[in-house]
């Protein structure tokens, strides 16, 4: 599942690493992309969105929005 989170409080590469590590503590295989400028974190993970939101909150950042959608394959088909 692809989960998009809007995260406030990230301002540097240390923040990116902290958020990425917080997510990977719950799913080592998670694919995490952080857009520092927009505050958007996109995660490909089997974990529920609430679990990832809680992990980011525990790391000291504020999640203001969460959106989930099924994962798609390279061909665009829903998995």
UniProtKB/TrEMBL annotation:
SUPFAM superfamilies: HMA, heavy metal-associated domain. Keywords: Metal-binding. Residues 1-64 form the HMA domain. One of its GO terms (molecular function) is metal ion binding. Pfam families: HMA. InterPro entries: Heavy-metal-associated_CS, HMA_dom, HMA_dom_sf. This is Heavy metal transporter. It comes from Paraburkholderia aromaticivorans.
